[in-house]
Amino acid sequence: MPSNASNWVKDQPYEDVFDVGIDPPVPGRGHPLPNDMFVRWAIGPRNLYLNFSDPTILNLEETQWNPDYVVIPKNLSEGKWIYMIIYGNTTSVPSNARLTIPAAHPIHLHGHDFALIQQSTTPFDKTTFNPKLDNPPRRDVVLLPANGFVAIAFKADNPGAWLIHCHIAWHASSGLAMQILESQDALRKQMTPARLAPVEKGCATWDRWFSDPRNLWDRNVSFFQEDSGI
Which of 30, 96, 137, 220 has the smallest count of CB within 10 Å of its CB? Predict the structure, then answer.
């Protein structure tokens, strides 16, 4: 781990701390229809819900993101480290009305493996946080213990819109995921028209298929996508 890791451990900014739980329904902000009143699993600011034909990778000129996409920008110079604490218990960390319940979650990160610098079955407490910075184990999935927390770190050396999500399928389908948008400027330069062409073709194919009512499970409904889109 880099020598400056100790500074992050000391400060632990709250923007690097993410809670996992269940979001109660909010009138007018439901999915798939605005007035739907479903509870959904979530991590970070809110539960994730993506548009199949409008992926983040096609919107890299944006600076303001649809809140449903749960984009967490991390614009660091190459080689710097990204640190995250993920917890599943009631702590002193400021939060919304999310319900935290004692359930374990296998948390998986796309685009990287990560250093597991702490994993605990006890609630996160900033004053007693004691990460392992000397030769920590490396993983791409880690179990978030019920009532506990994990702390992970990875080097910002692979620009992308990387999902971090629960590997329990219906939790991910419910929205327990967020996107780490790593090095957006570098990613925008890498995503040339030639590289984006297959993505755009796939989205156009989906739009054509979706626009034909014969392909829907019920032609009388006004929605098709029920899950988060991942």
Answer: 220
Q: For residue 163, what are the CA distances in angstroms to 91, 167, 177, 191, 216? A: 25, 11, 7, 18, 28
- Could you give the percent of the chain with pLDDT greater than 90? 52
Q: Is residue 70 a contact partner of residue 178, using CB atoms and an 8 Å limit?
A: yes
Alpha-carbon gap, residue 108 to 163, rounded angstroms: 8
pLDDT for the residue 156: 92
Residue 4 CB partners (closer than 8 Å, separation 6+): 81
> Among 11-15, 59-63, 120-124, 226-230, which is the least confidently predicted range?
11-15
CA 100/CA 114 separation, integer angstroms = 25
Cα dist from 174 to 34, 49, 87, 98, 165, whole Å: 15, 8, 18, 14, 11
- What mean pLDDT do residues 115-134 have? 88
CB 53 within 8 A of CB 203: yes
DSSP 116: E
Q: What is the pTM of this model?
A: 0.88
Q: What average pLDDT does this structure show over 215-228?
A: 76
CA distance 201 to 230: 19
Please say whether the beta carbons of 175 and 68 come within 8 A: no
